[in-house]
Structure formats: structure tokens, C-alpha cells
């Protein structure tokens, strides 16, 4: 049975033609500001490229320094883990006693790994690394002692002191000084990268703020008319905030491209240098988490810069009630 009443159809049409709710209007305004702000940036290509270029360099410098420090730390053999201690035993210590001593030391809580290198193994290792097979063959006897190679767990200060006190120990080789100095330099470099990131981030914020300020000045009369018509500060501010966010996002992407381009330019000579030392070291790039953090941080900086400038302008030009 057909229940299509003309009055019901008319009411349904009226419902469909009613204005959307507050959230729909709010979303439509944001989408319009989002697209319109991009259009304003595209219509001024040279000014936009200049702003984005300056901000991109500001982002690329501390990012490149941080990436370089990460690779230096990795090239050093992961300094926090490569902490080998070599204990050279006295010549009269037999292999059986060296093996028993190695078993005793493996039971210590501050020893992560231990390997006994016998004189025969040490001589074979020396021949392999030096290439002096004829000179080694001319030796009447093996001059190398038993050697214990340890990797400490935690602070190795007490372990080194205990190893030096052993009656079987002849010499303990523990190159902690250079590692501590390298750790200090890497720590200083990382702190420097954060300080530069803060300073250059502040500079980028000022750049985008000044650019948005110029755009506001060019639309001063339009903003005045909107204020007289009763437009809210949020409605007026919204396109400029999105404009600042676009500047920040584009600058972050360009900064990442600059860093990756510099890494690509350095990769070939660095590979050749590492190959000359029989090393397989290669530059590591930016992980996705850092890329996302850079893009998000750059966008937020652009957003904040535009928000501060537009807020200051609106406070100065807000009509006074009489």
C-alpha cells in the first residue's frame, strides 16, 4: 500500500533543507580556511618560497648535527657497549689455570662476557691481522701469554681493580680514557644540537610570524569590515593560523630533504674511507619516528607563530564599544 502522503513529503523536504548543525558549520569553516590559506600561499610563490627556505635551513642545521652525532656514536662501535677489557696473564700461567680463572670470573655479576685466548689462538690472530707469516714462522717459541677478553656489565671500575689485583695478572689493558672523552664530546654535541634546535626554532617562529603579519597588514581593511559585521576573533584568525601551519609543514619537509641530500652527497666518500679501514660502516638515515616528529614540530611552530601574531593584531584593532 502506498503511504506517500504529500504533506509528509513536504515536511521531509523541509527537514532536508534546514541548515546543518553547529558542528557542520564549524567543520565547513575549517575546511574552507584550510584550503583557502594554501591558495593564498600559492598565489605568492616567491614570498612563500623565501619564507619556507629560511625556515627550512633553520630546521636542517640542528637536525643535521643530531644525525651526524648519531653516526659518529655508531661509528665508534657503540661506545656504551664496546668496553672490552684485555687481561694478559703471566708467561708461567698454564692454560689449565687460565681456564679455571676464566670460569671463576664468569661467575661475577659485573662480567657480561668472557673469552679465553690461548697463546696459539693469539698467534694465529696476530698472523691474520698483520700478514707477517714469514716473520712469525721464524720464531723459536710463541712469545704470547694467555689472554682473557672481558666485556663488563655496568660500571667497570671495580672489575678493573679486581683484575689488576689477581696474582696471575701481568697487565690489564683498559682504554677507558678515550671512551670517556668521546662520551663527553658526544654528550656536549647532543646538548649543543638541542640548544641550536631551540634557537633556530625561535628564529623560524619569528620568520613565520613576520610573514603572517605582512599578510594581515595587506588585508587590514577586509578584517576591519569583518569585525564591524560581528565576526568572531576565531573566524578572523583561522585562515592565518592555517597559513602559518602550511609554512611550517612545507619548511619541515624541505629541511628533511636538505638533510637527506647532504647525507647522499657524503655517502660515497664516506664509504670509500670506511672501506680503506676494512669497515662496513655506512651512514644511517632518518627513521620514520624522527621524520614524523620534525614535520609535526615544524607545523606546530608555524601554527604558534601565526596564532601569536594574529592574536596581537586582533587585540590592537578590536572595536571599542561606546
From TrEMBL:
One of its GO terms (biological process) is cell division. GO terms for cellular component: cell division site; plasma membrane. It comes from the Bacteria. Residues 195-316 form the ABC3 transporter permease C-terminal domain. Coiled coil: none annotated. It is a multi-pass membrane protein. It is found in: Cell inner membrane. InterPro entries: ABC3_permease_C, FtsX, FtsX_ECD, FtsX_proteobact-type. Keywords: Cell cycle, Cell division, Cell inner membrane, Cell membrane, Membrane, Transmembrane, Transmembrane helix. The chain crosses the membrane at residues 46-69, 192-212, 240-266, 289-309. Residues 84-172 form the FtsX extracellular domain. The keyword Flavoprotein does not apply. PANTHER family: CELL DIVISION PROTEIN FTSX (PTHR47755). Forms a membrane-associated complex with FtsE. Belongs to the ABC-4 integral membrane protein family. FtsX subfamily. Part of the ABC transporter FtsEX involved in cellular division. This is Cell division protein FtsX.
Amino acid at each position: 500500500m502506498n503511504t506517500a502522503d504529500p504533506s509528509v513529503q513536504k515536511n521531509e523536504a523541509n527537514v532536508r533543507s534546514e541548515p546543518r548543525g553547529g558542528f557542520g558549520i564549524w567543520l565547513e569553516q575549517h575546511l574552507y580556511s584550510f584550503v583557502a590559506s594554501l591558495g593564498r600561499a600559492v598565489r605568492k610563490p616567491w614570498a612563500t618560497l623565501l619564507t619556507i627556505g629560511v625556515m627550512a635551513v633553520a630546521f636542517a642545521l640542528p637536525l643535521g648535527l643530531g644525525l651526524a652525532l648519531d653516526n659518529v656514536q655508531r661509528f665508534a662501535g657503540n661506545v656504551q657497549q664496546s668496553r672490552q677489557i684485555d687481561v694478559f696473564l703471566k708467561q708461567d700461567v698454564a692454560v689449565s689455570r687460565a681456564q679455571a680463572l676464566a670460569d671463576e670470573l664468569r661467575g661475577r655479576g659485573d662480567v657480561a662476557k668472557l673469552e679465553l685466548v690461548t697463546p696459539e689462538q693469539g698467534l694465529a690472530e696476530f698472523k691474520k691481522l698483520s700478514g707477517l707469516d714469514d716473520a712469525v714462522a721464524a720464531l723459536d717459541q710463541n712469545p704470547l701469554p694467555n689472554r682473557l677478553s672481558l666485556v663488563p656489565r655496568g660500571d667497570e671500575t671495580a672489575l678493573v681493580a679486581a683484575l689488576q689485583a689477581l696474582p696471575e695478572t701481568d697487565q690489564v689493558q683498559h682504554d677507558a680514557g678515550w671512551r670517556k672523552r668521546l662520551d663527553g664530546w658526544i654528550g656536549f654535541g647532543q646538548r649543543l644540537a638541542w640548544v641550536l634546535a631551540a634557537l633556530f626554532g625561535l628564529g623560524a617562529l619569528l620568520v613565520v610570524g613576520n610573514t603572517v603579519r605582512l599578510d594581515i597588514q595587506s588585508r587590514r581593511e577586509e578584517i576591519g569590515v569583518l569585525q564591524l559585521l560581528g565576526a568572531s576573533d576565531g573566524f578572523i584568525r583561522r585562515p592565518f593560523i592555517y597559513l602559518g601551519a602550511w609554512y611550517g609543514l612545507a619548511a619541515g619537509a624541505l629541511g628533511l630533504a636538505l638533510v637527506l641530500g647532504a647525507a647522499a652527497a657524503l655517502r660515497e666518500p664516506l664509504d670509500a674511507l670506511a672501506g680503506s679501514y676494512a669497515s662496513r660502516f655506512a651512514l644511517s638515515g632518518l627513521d620514520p619516528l624522527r621524520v614524523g616528529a620534525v614535520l609535526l614540530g615544524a607545523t606546530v611552530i608555524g601554527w604558534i607563530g601565526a596564532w601569536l601574531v594574529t592574536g596581537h593584531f586582533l587585540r590592537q584593532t578590536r572595536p571599542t564599544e561606546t
